[in-house]
Write a structure and sequence with these properties.
The protein is 36% helix and 20% strand. The chain contains 35 helices and 32 strands. The strands form 7 sheets. It has a 7-stranded parallel sheet, with helices on both faces. A 6-stranded parallel sheet has the order 8-15-12-9-11-10, with helices on both faces. Strand 10, helix 11 and strand 11 form a beta-alpha-beta unit. The longest helix has 19 residues.
């Protein structure tokens, strides 16, 4: 029986909340983090004469009173957050602000309807939109809008859909996009920059470790400097702080990143830390911090960002953008006398020429979140004015997955889907919690609250005595359970029960190599899960052992909400290694989070961390697929077969095949279709394939030359033509003797053919003959003919518009680059820009029909480039699948549990593979 879930972050009484809407509407402040919520709540109680107030105070009040949307772009220290109070007072027409906060720590209460200013995080704002709690009369104040996230971008689109007014605040960013997208009447820009305090900026070609040499550190001591170093990773931050601390004990050295509680560096924030000091921080960690006494900034020109590639979030090493450099340097540049900025980079950066750029949006990588939101609202994704184009292919896949899982039915969230959506955790964990019994809830609540075992621990860690072999999830739970057993107690925060920890947590975490903040964040999230399911927090946490491992893996095997890897391959054949920090074995079935990262060559790789599932459980919950008729051109005798499979969440565990000579009456139609498709693809062993090839090419070329005026003969049309001629065929003997013809005259009259053949096949450019490919473009339901000049790359790089010949239809361009693929472009400028890249853009996934209409030259180039790309990404997937199928998954501790014991049966195909490999 499914569990009842209550969303504690929505107003308890929706009707009462809506009825209490003041005539002016409410002010809904959307903050990027919980910490930002607290800062905004504090700012709403203060009146301070800030730089922003002095420069634009009257303009801000006038715009607020006029009912217009506007933006504020202000540098660090100018007081943009403090401006929310006068904005609120002006819009609400009162200086009596009733402020409430709803975030992971603080739930909505029966008093929520009385609040006229409500501060929420982005995820909760999205839920309020879905519940109809944000109304057209409300004003949305978006703080730190430049800190992009999928949740924030969805909120912007949902706010536009409702018709809310937007006021937005941002640090260094080009405001052009936001001004247009949010219909801003004005953008007020200000900074605390003092030209007399411009910093000395130097570009240094060194890595961080080399830069922190004796010469630099001696200078820090001599000049009593306050140094902040910004690095991209946790490990880099900790290493830099340790290096400075060991070599120069006179320098007060510390570090801060997203895994550390803010109290660690509070002395630096409150001005209590004496110079000289050295503080290493990640870019994410420093974004909202004002370090007192800072006069020197060292910036590593490196960041790791998620790049959307074929619908996947690929963690990629990149250079910093102009916005990040300006924000980091702005800590001292123009604010501190004698300030110094060092940028460690292999680029020639002209700092004085840097200007803010448009934001980088994240929404394209979270199609599942968009799909669930749209289903909850009952709208299609194209009805939302999203700030970034959605990956349509990834979105359709997400909808299909959610429909298969029973979360979406008929375009709306099902009852089950609403329970899953109400859980304050990610969808896979929410599904497990909704379906689990009470005994597993403590374990699931904690595991769902921990990002990963890897993110929870340092590189040097001690997991002795708590490892659950084969499960990163349960090992992470055991760490939390031990922390609570040794250092924890139940207390209250904002009136809500929570696991809290005493000061001994620091020494325990140091000994284990665990991040304290990860434990504290898990405690907060665990408490929210318990409130959602209506259970009391446990006063005792028991370590997970064999019994829980068995129950957890059975639940996983039954519902499988996670990514699944078997023998280090995904269901589509992609290689996926087990993470180096995982306690799971390399082989077998592993359920968890699949993460993508780019290696040093920029090639996407996949890694998984999770829980191993014994193969007997996989087989217990596998399903038999329906019988399929397939044609295998590799089989000289008996290529037509009946195929029966055993499948498990996209994996084909077993397959049995039976050669077909006489078509079974119930499957005769499917058999004829399979043969027709094999004929159309040129794979069937039939004399008609070779005999009709010339006629098919002639008809397709005529279609392209006519601009789509003659009949089309793509793959679907050719399959239908052959299927019609196979109507009376009921056996393979009938098929082999069948006369199958493609009559050119039925598609194109002779006079039309002669007319089309007179069209030119090439043009002369720079005394060279350039091939012409005719084609048909289909846009917005309209077809039109184009010509594509097949240019040599050397000419294409320097060609000018004046050299392009005049033809009877629009001109497009293509350059065939062998194993580097084909570059297509509509304009010469676009072509030349793409040719500057070392590799051609990956081809968009096409249907077989699209490829069938390509010219022979381009088809061959794409085939060669596709093979080369597959080789660069790790070789032939099919070969990898065969390697992975030699034995079953290793169970806990590496033993072989329930491997592939089944040998080939009488009718089984020894060449069987998992689907897609």
């Amino acid at each position: 029986m499914q569990r009842t879930v209550t969303d504690r972050y929505l107003p308890p009484d929706h009707a009462a909340y809506v009825a209490a809407e003041p005539p002016t509407g409410r002010l809904i402040v959307i903050a990027p983090t919980r910490a930002a919520c607290e800062t905004i709540e504090l700012a709403l109680g203060l009146r301070i004469a800030t730089t922003l107030e002095k420069q634009h105070g009257s303009e801000i009040r006038d715009l607020a009173a006029a009912g217009k949307g506007f933006g504020i772009v202000a540098g660090t220290g100018t007081g943009k957050t403090l401006s929310i109070r006068p904005i609120a007072e002006t819009i609400l027409g009162t200086d009596t602000l009733k402020v409430g906060v709803v975030n992971r720590e603080r739930e909505a209460t029966p008093e929520t309807p009385s609040w006229n200013v409500i501060v929420v995080t982005t995820g909760i704002a999205r839920r309020w939109f879905q519940d109809g709690d944000i109304l057209p009369t409300d004003t949305l104040v978006v703080d730190e809008i430049h800190q992009t996230s999928a949740e924030l971008e969805l909120c912007l689109a949902l706010g536009k859909r409702v018709g809310c007014r937007f006021i937005w605040l941002s640090a260094t960013v080009d405001p052009t996009f936001y001004a247009r997208y949010l219909n801003a009447a004005a953008v007020l820009e200000t900074s605390a920059f003092d030209p007399s305090k411009a910093a000395d900026v130097k570009i240094v070609r060194k890595d961080p470790r080399t830069f922190l040499d004796d010469r630099f550190l001696q200078q820090v001591v001599k000049e009593r400097r306050g140094v902040g170093m910004f690095l991209p990773t946790r490990a880099g931050v900790e290493e830099a702080a340790e290096l400075v601390g060991v070599r120069f004990p006179r320098i007060n050295s510390a570090f801060y990143h997203g895994g550390e509680p803010i109290r660690i560096i509070r002395p630096f924030l409150e001005g209590e830390e004496k110079k000289p000091y050295f503080l290493a921080m990640t870019a994410a960690g420093q974004s909202a911090l004002n370090v007192q006494g800072l006069d020197t900034v060292v910036i590593d020109d490196t960041r790791f960002s998620n790049v959307i590639e074929r619908g996947k979030n690929v963690l990629t090493r990149l250079h910093l953008g102009a916005n990040e450099i300006l924000q980091m340097a702005g800590r001292v540049h123009g604010r501190v006398a004698g300030g110094r900025v060092f940028i460690l980079s292999d680029r020639d950066i002209q700092f004085s020429s840097l200007r803010p750029t448009a934001p980088e949006f994240q929404l394209a990588g979270d199609s599942e979140r968009v799909a669930m939101t749209c289903a909850d609202l009952g709208v299609a994704a194209d009805q939302l004015d999203l700030p970034v184009p959605l990956d349509r292919v990834a979105y359709r896949k997400a909808v299909s997955l959610l429909e298969q899982r029973g979360i979406i039915e008929n375009g709306r969230l099902s009852r089950y889907g609403k329970s899953v959506e109400a859980m304050p955790v990610d969808r896979p964990w929410a599904e497990l919690l909704v379906n689990a019994d009470d005994e597993l809830v403590p374990y699931l609540a904690v595991m769902s609250s921990i990002e990963s075992l890897h993110r929870m621990t340092r590189e040097e860690r001690d997991l002795s005595g708590i490892i659950v072999p084969g499960s990163d999830h349960l090992t992470a739970y055991n760490l939390y359970a031990e922390a609570f057993s040794h250092c924890g107690y139940i207390g209250e925060v904002y009136g809500l029960p929570r696991h809290l920890f005493d000061e001994s947590i620091e020494s325990w975490a140091e000994q284990r190599g665990v991040l304290v903040k990860a434990i504290e964040d898990a405690a907060l999230a665990t408490a929210s899960v318990y409130r959602a399911v209506g259970m009391e927090l446990p006063t005792k946490m028991v370590n997970a052992r064999d019994h829980i491992y068995r129950k957890f893996t059975e639940l996983l095997a039954q519902y499988m909400p996670f990514d699944l890897v078997i023998d280090e391959h995904t269901a589509d054949g992609t290689e996926a290694r087990v993470s180096k920090t995982s306690v799971a074995g390399s082989w077998g079935a592993i359920a968890g989070d699949l993460r993508y990262f780019a290696d040093r060559s920029g090639i996407p790789r996949a890694a998984i961390e999770g829980t191993q599932i014994p193969m007997e459980l996989i087989r217990r919950y596998a399903t038999r697929g329906k019988v399929e008729v397939v044609y295998d051109p590799r089989r000289k005798h008996g290529p037509l077969m009946l195929k029966r499979t055993v499948e498990y969440f996209g994996f084909e565990l077993e397959s049995e095949v039976e050669t077909v000579e006489e078509f079974p009456p119930a499957l005769a139609r499917e058999a004829r279709h399979a043969l027709a498709e094999a004929l159309a693809r040129g794979e069937a062993r039939h004399f008609a394939v070779k005999q009709n090839r010339g006629a098919i090419d002639e008809i397709r070329e005529a279609y392209k030359r006519s601009g789509g005026e003659t009949k089309r003969l793509g793959l679907p049309e050719l399959i239908a033509l052959y299927e019609e001629q196979l109507a009376g065929v009921s056996s393979m003997d009938d098929f082999r003797s069948a006369r199958l013809a493609v009559d050119v005259d039925k598609f194109i009259p002779l006079d039309i053919r002669e007319l089309l053949e007179r069209l030119p096949n090439h043009v002369t450019i720079r005394d060279r003959e350039v091939e012409i490919d005719y084609d048909v473009e289909d846009r917005d339901g309209e077809r039109r003919g184009v010509v594509r000049l097949r240019l040599p790359e050397k000419i294409a790089r320097t060609l000018t518009d004046a050299e392009i010949p005049d033809l009877d239809r629009p001109v497009r361009f293509v350059v065939l680059r062998g194993q580097r693929g084909a570059v297509r472009a509509e304009t010469l400028d676009e072509l030349q820009e793409r040719l500057k890249q070392p590799w051609s853009p990956d081809e968009v996934e096409e249907t077989q029909d699209d490829r069938s209409m390509l010219s022979h030259a381009e088809s061959e180039v794409r085939r060669i480039a596709g093979e080369f790309r597959r080789h660069r990404r790790g070789g032939d997937h099919r070969h990898g699948a065969r390697r992975g199928s030699r034995g079953g998954p290793r169970g806990r501790g590496g033993s072989n549990e329930g491997g592939h014991a089944r040998g080939p049966g009488r009718n089984s195909d020894p060449r069987r593979r998992r689907r897609g490999r």
